[in-house]
Amino acid sequence: MDEELIPLSLLKEGEEGIVRSVRGGRRLISRLASMGISQNARIRVLQSAGGRFIVEASDARIALGWFEVGHIGVVRSVTSREEPPPASEQRRILVALAGQPNVGKSTIFNILTGLSQHVGNWPGKTVEKKEGVYIADNTEMHIVDLPGTYSLTAFSEEERVARDFILQNRPDVIALLINASSLERSLYLLSELLLLGPPVVAAVNMIDVAESSGISINMAKLRKSLGIPVVPMIATKNTGINDLVAQILATADGNESYQPVLPGVSSDHEDVYHELLNLIREHATPDAYPPEWVSIKLMEGDGEISRRVEDRVPAFVRERINALLIEHEDALRAVVNGRYSWIKTITDQAVSRKRMEEVLLTDRIDHVLTRPIWGIPILLGVFGLIFLLTYTVGFPLQKLLEEAVILLGRSLEPLFVSAPLWLKGLVLDGVIGGAGSVLTFLPILVIFFAVLALLEDVGYMARAAFVMDRFMHLIGLHGKSFMPLCLGFGCNVPAIMGARILESRKARLLTLLLIPFVPCTARLAVLTFMTAALFGHKATLVSWSLLTLNILVLGVVGMAASALFLKDEQTPFIMELPLYHKPNPRTIGMVVWSRSLAFVKKAGTVIVLVSVVIWLLSYLPEGRLEDSFLARGGMLLEPFGVPLGLDWKMVTALLTSIVAKENAVATLGVLYGVGDEGLVRLLPSVISAASGLSFLVVLMLFVPCAATVAVMKQEMRDRKWFVLSLTLTLVISYLGGMAAYRIAFWLGL
Fold first, then answer.
1. Run of H or E including 43
2. pLDDT per residue over 444-453, tens digit each?
3. CA angle 495, 499, 503 (to 5 degrees)
């Protein structure tokens, strides 16, 4: 009976199909294959609404955009669910920690390395580099945490860094973290790592999550079918860590049996593979790369490896290689099919499923949270809850902390009775009045940090990206860009670095352009502080309005930039939706602690320094604010503030916010002389509601802090876009402030 090939989009929710064709370029085919979607893979539609799809393939939930769905052809499946087919002195050893995103790699790295870890950038790269040391059995294990990646195809900088480190540094052991609940996809990465040379230890993590999903893995059979050491683990419960260390040491010593069963290619391309292998072995192995791996990369169409081979082989060999690859244009599919055949053989022996047809809790939750009708209102409600917690819990705590800062200032006054006036003012008004005012933000920031960490830990942030995909397409992006943009609510710096997950140049540049319009916690804290002080019971409405303004500006700028500069590049959307799981209080606590500590350090260094400099400029040369250097400079700029309703003090506060947004409050505290009143009580008497609204609009849309500017320049690598970004924020914030000032008068504020 002939099979009827239909587009994946025609499958209804709950229906299954078998992939028979994957069209598109090599990049798309390879990307889908690494996520578990390849020829002959079984796929089930979990959700299809609003032009967006959530499918299940290789035991993983994957979100797809309309473009990707249109390139996948399937036949309906009416049979029972099957496995998807192909695809003495202390010594020192080097261990590479590898794995796909969200497999618990960071948890294991943090447990092993603790305080010994160091974070930086790879030489010549913007990808974050993590390394640390763990000592066991008189052995110093130097552990390098490789960037999370689904494959080693080198389409992204993370993939290139991971494979180049292994090939060039030749670690003694590669510890590969595998997600037990989506074993097939993790084995896809293993199929590539085994060809690189160094021995691999497979750490099968999250076995508790797999068991709760009805997946049972026979570790003994898995080890036998792979031919390499296998360690079961539950990293969040610190289970299996010691076993992993023991296996790493035994493998490095050669005391463990290591006879890996390597993946091949589909049978119809074996002759092609062997001919390429012989050519490479005889004439060139670029940079000492394993010839088996080079041959596979040539069949995959890897541009970088192809160029290296061409530079090292004679002309007649180069011509033969090109002829082979042209004659067999489907060589990539042969590689992918060979890997999945290898994966199927392994999983058939080691994996069994008991309850795969049951509706999982994740499906039930996603049925509500990812629907177009409910998804966006729920997302807005989540952010509304954050503001509610901020005003009902964070702001009262902030006021208590401010009282403590005031009491501290009063208690120190007797110590300065006989001290020079400048020293008294420097300490009480400069340090305590300026930096102390900023430290009172801490309760507000802790709430932001905790809620965002909770949402990320339980798995909601990926759903937020999926829900926002339709909106993001309006501005020329896709839902995956929402994740770094959402990170911007915590801090623009990691948000900009988080844009590295985007494969498309258009998506990266446009996302980097828009991130400065996302209000970070520092700006949100200033917003919360000043609206509560200036607008009283209207504070919530004003805050929501200003936040909405930011989002609208972001959307308009995105649509304009996409239409004018980046209209010809496609923006595919493929991402994994992890299972929901219980939040880990320890993980959330570590995130909140590290981010809060970073803020306190900044308040104790950069902000103190800026506060002292501002106070000195406001005191010198004669001890009077009106005649100070700061007043003179501020008054020169005051004409620019007049259309905004801002005096020179408020203009100066905006300028100091370029160093750190919290400096705006610190500067106001210094210039207006907080004294015993406290800034909350003082602001309404020195700043009108209209001027305050204009000030906040400019602050929210203004040039981001110096750290953000520096990272943005590094990540953009395009002077035109960098200058465009800074110019846009400056012009839009100024025009927005003018409009806000006029509207405030019109509303009678």
1. strand 42-49
2. 667 777 877 7
3. 170
Cβ–Cβ < 8 Å for 141, 245: yes
Q: What is the DSSP letter of 239?
A: B
Q: What is the pLDDT of residues 351-401, one digit of tens each?
A: 886 654 434 666 677 777 777 677 777 777 776 777 677 667 776 777 777
- Could you tell me the strand order of the sheet in which 91-99 lies? 118-121, 128-136, 139-145, 91-99, 173-179, 200-205, 230-232
- How far is Cα 639 from Cα 648, in angstroms, rounded to an integer? 9
* Residues with Cβ within 8 Å of residue 305, at least 6 apart in sequence: 286, 289, 294, 297, 298
Positive or negative torsion for Cα 602, 603, 609, 611: positive
Q: What's the CA gap between 53 and 469, in Å, rounded?
A: 11
Q: Is-contact 617 628, C-beta < 8 A?
A: yes
User: By C-alpha distance, which of 673, 699, 695, 700 is closest to 685?
Assistant: 673
Amino acid, res. 35: M
190: exposed, middle or buried (C-beta count within 10 Å: 0-12, 13-18, 19+)?
Answer: buried
User: Tens digits of per-residue pLDDT, 322-347?
Assistant: 888 888 888 888 888 888 889 888 88
> In percent, how much of the chain has pLDDT > 70?
74
601 class by beta-carbon count within 10 Å (0-12 exposed, 13-18 middle, 19+ buried): exposed
End-to-end CA, the chain: 76
Mean predicted confidence (pLDDT) in 121-143: 73
From the CA atom positions of the chain, what is the Rg in Å?
29
| CA–CA separation, 167 and 159 (whole Å) | 12
- Contact status, residue 498 vs residue 525, Cβ threshold 8 Å: no
Non-local CB neighbours of 558 within 8 Å, separated by 6+ positions:
474, 475, 476, 477, 510, 513, 514
Which residue matches tokens 């942030």? 461
How many CA atoms lie within 13 Å of 40's alpha carbon, on the beta-carbon side?
A: 16
d(CA 67, CA 111): 41
Q: Does 147 sit behind a cis peptide bond, omega within 30 degrees of 0 on the bond before it?
A: no
Contact present, 92 and 57 (Cβ < 8 Å): no
